[in-house]
Amino acid sequence: MKEDSKPKKTNASDHCFREDFKYPTQRNPYHQKLDVFNEFVLKDEEAEVHRGKWSEDVFKNQAPIEVEIGSGYGHFMLDYTEKNPGINFIGLDHRFKRSFHLAEKLAKREHKNFRYLRARGERLGFIFGEEEVSKLYYFFPDPWPKKRHHKKRLFQQTFIKELYKVMKKDGEVLIKTDHDGYYEWMLEELKDNQYFEITFNSQNLREEHPEHFLASFITKFEKIFLNKGIKIKAITLKKK
Q1: N- or C-end of the chain: fewer Cβ atoms within 10 A?
Q2: Can you say how many angstroms the Cα of residue 151 is from the centroid of all Cα atoms in its chain?
Q3: HEC states along the chain?
Q4: Which stretches in the chain have pLDDT values below 50?
Q5: Which residue in 142, 170, 178, 192 is the catalytic one?
Q6: CATH label of the domain that carries residue 143
Q7: Is residue 135 part of a domain?
Q8: Residue span of the structural domain in which 180 resides
Q9: Does any domain span residue 201?
Q10: What CA–CA distance (Å, rounded) separates 41 from 107?
Q11: Which of 98, 129, 132, 119 minimizes the C-alpha distance to 42?
Q12: Catalytic (active site) residue 44
């Protein structure tokens, strides 16, 4: 695979992609409270020691590994893992209070076919090894709407390359967003790329494709957007 010739945007989060990146010392009380759930919660660098070994060392089976970046309040993760006990699901988010409350809900689940990471999406390539992930979900990420903040958006060339490395052959990436600007940004980042093929693309998911998997559930944020009459944009990608 040749390097993408597209110019790379300068991104303020680029340091998070670096091998020498270290999470800052956290004083947020919810970060410490997560220790109660260490059976299935890993914080900061703790997840990175399992790179390439999630099946053998953590889940101890060969079921497909599916990942959600930005699990938020956990509506998708909770519902999906319960309905699909035959997968290994890893959700991650870097918000403190939100992570703790989701962990409280996950702790009540009988089937522990999941792990939860208090981690950053930029660290994807350090958390997972090459071709370790079967599916990745990226729902309603922070769009950083102000122009001066666009460089903070996760979905950019460095991330796309890391995503390509960790996805299995024919691995699938499923994306939903309410934000027109971020939707257009992602399509632009994917233009003429050598890593992923766009297999599905809709600017109005629920009206145009009500039968699609991505229209079969509603997250907390999605419900808010739909009540405001905002159209849901959706993209699915397959690794080339």
Answers
A1: N
A2: 18
A3: CCCCCCCCCCCCCHHHHCCCCCCCCCCCHHHHHHHHHCCCEEEHHHHHHHCCCHHHHHHCCCCCEEEEECCCCCHHHHHHHHHCCCCEEEEEECCHHHHHHHHHHHCCCCCCCEEEEECCHHHHHHHCCCCCEEEEEEECCCCCCCHHHHHHCCCCHHHHHHHHHHEEEEEEEEEEECCHHHHHHHHHHHCCCCCEEEEEEECCHHHHCCCCHHHCCCCHHHHHHHHCCCCCEEEEEEEC
A4: 1-10, 12
A5: 142
A6: 3.40.50.150
A7: yes
A8: 38-239
A9: yes
A10: 10
A11: 119
A12: no
Distance of CA 119 to the CA centre of its chain: 11
What is the amino acid identity at position 143? P
pLDDT tens figures, 144-203: 999 998 988 999 999 999 999 999 999 999 999 999 999 999 999 999 999 999 999 999
Tell me whether residue 31 is in a domain: no
Number of domains making up the chain: 1
| The two structure tokens encoding residue 125 | 């390539």
Q: Both tokens of residue 51? A: 């790179």
The C-alpha atoms of residue 129 and residue 193 are separated, in whole angstroms, by 22
10 within some domain? no
